[in-house]
Specification:
This protein is of the alpha+beta class. It is about 50% helix and about 15% strand. The protein is built from ten helices and ten strands. Strands 1, 2, 3, 4, 8, 9 and 10 form a seven-stranded mixed β-sheet that branches. The protein has a three-stranded antiparallel β-sheet with strand order 5-6-7, with no helix packed on it. The radius of gyration is 25 Å and the shape is elongated. It starts with 11 loop residues before the first helix and ends with a strand.
Length: about 350
């Protein structure tokens, strides 16, 4: 984390993450087109360009469902927290797939008339009052514009300059984009083909996404209530010598993950989750007195949990002590995190 921004701060994790995404997308497109050509041979064949339109469209919808499920899954279980890593790369991939779908559809369905392709496709046909003639392409265009705004502002440069609240509000529009995409399919593809399989998959996706968000909300509400009732008892973490110097040990509590860092003879207890993208701080190290996230290098002063200037992010700090050679923390948040010997 520095004052200078890089286009992408590549590391081994990012390369593997993006390689898996790219490989999965290429494989999906190839299988979709290949199976389509095999299932619809001449004379009733579906042309490869049409298959590509459908392949990119279904790929985009599938990616959007995965993106919307990552957050609830990570809240329901810490095992899914690594999926949050570079989730924005997945969002950019969704935009590119949706863009390819839109461009192909516009050029193929609107590129052979007297009007320009965009107006030929987007302009209302049967009017907004007709279900069968509703200009569903317009809904897809709106969703694509939202996806573009999120992809274009996905870099940390925009997070820092727009401010966390504005940036978060902008990216919450993903739910509006999802609703627009669903209606785009319902009023478009499902009206022309009446496919039970396609309808079932779409309805199933909506149900799963909705159910997962409700479940995550219920679980988080229970955690919040437990946090309010949390007692100020001390929790055992590890033996003092087992905490690596300039490293940390983690412990799970009702208040969430806590990371206890050792700096020589001093201990600091801070929240174990990076506020950037949920990185596991207990796997990080102390660098120049700052807790450093192993994922993207975000830093917080070990003494008070604040990011060094000019940054303003903050993580909670907790009371910590050594008792009979064992490190203990109090689950209640404290104004500082200084060692207490007993």
């Amino acid at each position: 984390m520095t004052n200078a921004y890089r286009w992408v701060q590549w590391n081994a994790h990012k390369r593997v993450y993006d390689a898996v995404i790219a490989g999965a997308c290429v494989l999906y497109l190839g299988v979709f087109v290949g199976v389509g050509l095999a299932m619809f041979p001449a004379p009733g064949e579906i042309s490869p360009p049409i298959l590509l339109i459908r392949a990119f469209g279904t790929l985009a919808i599938g990616l959007l469902h995965v993106i919307l499920l990552i957050g609830p899954l990570a809240r329901l279980s810490d095992r899914f927290a690594p999926l949050l890593y570079n989730r924005r790369h997945l969002g950019v991939t969704f935009f590119l797939a949706a863009l390819a779908h839109g461009l192909l559809a516009t050029l193929i369905y609107g590129g052979f008339g007297v009007r320009d392709p965009v107006s030929a496709v987007i302009a209302p046909g049967g009017g907004f009052a007709s279900v069968s003639g509703f200009p569903f392409e317009f809904l897809g265009l709106l969703a694509l514009l939202i996806a573009f705004a999120m992809a274009a502002t996905s870099h940390d440069f925009w997070l820092a300059n727009l401010g966390p609240r504005t940036w978060k509000t902008l990216h919450m529009l993903v739910y509006l984009a999802y609703a627009l995409v669903v209606m785009h399919v319902v009023l478009g593809a499902l009206q022309s083909e009446r496919s039970r399989l396609a309808a079932g998959l779409l309805v199933g996706g909506v149900v799963v996404v909705s159910a997962m968000h409700v479940a995550a909300g219920v679980v988080q509400a229970r955690r919040d209530r437990r946090d309010l009732r949390a007692a100020s008892e001390w929790l055992d973490v590890a033996a003092f010598d087992d905490v690596p110097d300039q490293g940390a040990c983690g412990v799970s509590t009702d208040a969430g993950e806590i990371a206890v860092f050792r700096d020589g003879d001093r201990l600091h207890a801070v929240g174990g989750t990076c506020v950037h993208q949920g990185g596991p701080l207990a796997e990080g190290r102390l660098i120049d007195g700052c807790v450093t996230c192993p994922w993207h290098g975000y830093q917080y002063r070990a003494s008070d949990g604040c990011s060094p200037p000019p940054y303003s992010e903050r993580i909670p700090t907790y009371q910590v002590r050594v008792r009979d050679g064992r490190v203990e923390v109090a689950p209640e948040r404290a104004s500082g995190s200084e060692q207490r010997d007993a």
